Amino acid sequence: MAKVLGTSPQKLGRQMIQVFVGDDKQPHCVHRDLISASSDFFKNALHGKFKERDGIIRLLEENSDDFAVYVAWLYSGRLNYPPKVENSDDNNDEYGSALGSHYQKLLELHIMGDIIQDEDFQNTTTDTIIELASSSQRPPLHESFTRSAMSYLPLTSSLRKYLVDCWVYVRNPCWYEDGSVTLGEYPAEFWIEVAKGLTNQTKKPTPGAYPWELNPCLYHSHKKEAQKPKLA
């Protein structure tokens, strides 16, 4: 959870920095000590031997709206996202679409947290994703979320682990039978992690209790039996 530092000069410091995000012409202005205490990226940039120590930093690849959410979190200790979306039987598709957008935005915020090396902010976004999954009873299992998480987050990412665990523990065979999941749309390394999780989570039978030992018929071909005419 974020450290709420309050507004006292002793905690915020007196120096301000300017952060230009994306193609912004106007900077985000943040207290130097506040952001340095939370983000290792800013701490190193502002206190190292780089030109950024003069107090002007550019994040050309990031989203300005996302950074504004981050700055608000720095000062308040609260993540003001996502807005509440009502769920009802009448707007099931609309709710699902809005929920997917919220998950995607939270993932963007989490990835930005990884880039600026702010562990507290990343933990906050992870907690928000988990809370949203619990309240909606719809964990983030869709392909676009999975592909982005696997592409932009490191192997050691705790959010990647959460995503894999969702598939391991919330698993449902119907996902693969009703067309909800197209295997080729998900990264191969993701399925490897899911398989490892299932292996660790599933109780391993002892020799003599393997399904092929208990019932070899499970592995027989039964095409001829299916083609036999039924007796009147």
TrEMBL record:
Cited SUPFAM superfamilies: POZ domain
The organism encoding this protein is: Venturia inaequalis
Q: Which CDD domains match?
A: BTB_POZ_ZBTB_KLHL-like
**Pfam families in the cross-refs:** BTB
PROSITE patterns documented for this protein: BTB
Cross-referenced InterPro entries = BTB/POZ_dom, SKP1/BTB/POZ_sf
BTB domain boundaries: 30-83
UniProt protein name: BTB domain-containing protein
